[in-house]
Amino acid sequence: MLLSVSSIQFADGLAAVKVKLEYNLQKGDTQMLIWTIINTQDEPIKLEVYAKGEGAHLLTFEKHFTLDAKSKKDIEVFVIVPEDHVNNIEYRPHLFALQKAVTDTNTATGMVFNQQMRTIPIIKIGDNPVYTPPVGEKTEASKVEEKKEEIVEQIKEETMEEKLARINAANLDNESSKDVVKDSVNEKSVMDKEPTSDSEPTCGAGTTAVNGICVLNKAESEPEGGGCLIATATFGSEMAPQVQLLREIRDNQLMNTDSGVSFMSGFNQLYYSFSPIIADMERENPAFKELVKIGITPLLSSLSIMEYAESDSEVLGYGIGVILLNLGMYIGIPAFGILKFYQFRRN
User: What one-character-per-residue DSSP string does 324-337 give?
Assistant: First the structure.
C-alpha cells in the first residue's frame, strides 16, 4: 500500500500513519481498527503503547513490541463495550506509541529523551452518542455557538440610532481605506526614487519588524496556537524531538488541568515578551545559539518528569518540583560556587 507524505506524521526516526480511528458501537459490541507505526531508523527500536483519558479502559491492544529497522507495525486496536455499559456516550481517549531513552546525536551533550506518537480514537456508543469535553476543553462547535451568541446579543442591545451609526462608520472606513491605498502607492513611488539610509531589521519566522524591533506576530502569541520560539530556533525545526517534548507536555499535561491552564496563561504573557528577541539573536549568531543550547539542555531534561503527571494535583506537585529543581540548578549551584570561591579568596 502506497502512502502519501501528507498522510504520515513524522518525528526523529519514528512515524505514524494519520488515520481516523472512529468506532461506532452498541452495548456488547467489539470493533477493531488499525493504527500503523513506522520505524525509519537503521536499527530496531522497542515501543510501548498505552492509552490515557476517559474511555481508555475500553481499548485493548499489544502494549510492548520490537519494531525492526525500516519496517512498520499494524497495531490492532480493539474496543470492547460491556453489555451493562452506559449508552449514548462518546469518548476521545489519547493513544500513545512511546520510544523511551532516545539519545539525541545532534547535540554535544547527547541528551536522552522520550519520543512518542499520538492519535485520538473516537468511540461512539449508542444511536445518539454525546461527547462531554474534559474540564478546560471546548469543542469547535461550542466555540462557534458562543461567538454567534455574542454577535446576536450585541445586535439585540443596539438601538436604531446605534445601528445607523455603525453602518455609516463602516462605510466611512471603507472610503478611508481607498485613500490610504492611493497614498501608499504615491509614497512607494517616492521611496523608489529617493532611497533612505534607514532599513528595517531582518526578522525570523513568526516575528515582524515594528518600529525597528522584531516582535511576535499576534496570532502566534496566543496560548493555544503558540510555539516555543527559543527551542525552535535552537534546534532548527518545530519537528525537532526537544520541541515536540515541550509541545506534548503542554498539550497532554498542562492544558488538560485547571492549574496547568492557569499557569500557561501567566507563563505565555512573560515568555512571549522576550522570546522573539532571543530567537532572532540565535539566528544571527551561531555561537550564541550553541550557548543557549547548552544552557537549556538541563531544563529540557528536568521537564521530562512532567510526562508522568496525569491529575490536577500531580501536575501541580510535579510542576512545583520542576521549578524548585531548576532554581537549584540555575541559581542555587552557581551562587554556592561563587560563595565558596569568595571564601577561598579571603582565606
Answer: HHHHIIIIIHHHHH
Domain holding 16: CATH number? 2.60.40.10
Q: Tell me the pLDDT tens digit for each residue of 243-299.
A: 888 888 888 878 878 878 888 888 888 888 888 898 889 888 889 989 988 888 888
What is the number of domains present in the chain? Answer: 3
Grid look-up 462531554 returns 132
- Pair (126, 141) in one structural domain: no
Tell me the pTM.
0.40
The Cα 80–Cα 27 span in angstroms is 9
Q: Are residues 140 and 20 in the same domain?
A: no
Q: Is the CB of residue 113 less than 8 Å from the CB of residue 241?
A: yes
Are 164 and 244 members of one domain?
A: no
**Closest C-alpha to 123, from 78, 162, 153, 168:** 78
Cell of 116: 512518542
Angstrom distance (rounded) from CA 205 to CA 238: 11
Sign of CA dihedral 56, 34, 243, 206: negative
Alpha carbons 143 and 294: distance in angstroms, whole number = 41
Give the structural domain span for 14.
5-132
User: Domain check: are 285 and 231 in the same one?
Assistant: yes
